[in-house]
Amino acid sequence: MIIERLTQEHRNIERLLAVLEHELEVFDRGDRPDYEVIRAVISYFEVYPEVYHHPQEDLVFAKLRERDPAAAAKIGDLAREHHKGADRLRRVAQAVGYVLADGEVLRQDVDTIVRDFITHERRHMMMEDQHFFPAALKALRPEDWTEIAAAVTSHKDPLFSDVTEERFDALRAHILQLEQEAEAERK
After folding, report:
1. How many C-beta atoms lie closer than 10 Å to residue 37's C-beta?
2. 137: which residues sit within 8 A by CB, 6+ positions away?
3. All domains in the chain, ordered by first residue
4. d(C-alpha 12, C-alpha 6), whole Å
5. Predicted local distance difference test score (pLDDT) of residue 182
6. What is the spatial distance between Cα 147 and Cα 145, in angstroms, rounded to a whole number?
7. Below-50 pLDDT ranges, the chain
8. How confident is the model at residue 39, as a pLDDT?
9. Cβ atoms within 10 A of the Cβ of 144, count?
10. Which pLDDT value is given to residue 109?
11. I need a labelling partner for 13 at 20 to 30 A (CA). Which of 6, 23, 127, 151 fits?
């Protein structure tokens, strides 16, 4: 079902935010983070959420607005939130670009820009998981879900599926490594 896939995608996005946060901690210590991994995270966010994830949410939200305008109003302007997230991502990409080009940029400014992106993404996904998705599940009818499913293009997540894109290989390996290290620390 669509909501289950969107929820799973949120879990995948959270894994990427954790990777970005880890690399930011390395940067904040004055060490050199893995910029290949950071660029892959940025690339993923530029492609997957914008091209696949958000358009699906927008379809569900449009139906929610038809079926339960009051619930939709409580959620707010979802498309605007998605655009603001894309703007924050562009600032992250620019800040990382400045660092890699040895440009004049303060570490604190880079930290602030990246943390702002991470914080807002997490807050946005939490709102969707706690308010938007339950409201949609309650208000939408079976024929709405059928209509949405017909409009959604079939796709595989380029990072978290068996059909993976080569450009995400280093990121995928890094995520697995970080998860194994975290698991080892818990034992």
Report:
1. 23
2. 3
3. 2-186 (1.20.120.520)
4. 10
5. 59
6. 5
7. none
8. 87
9. 18
10. 93
11. 151
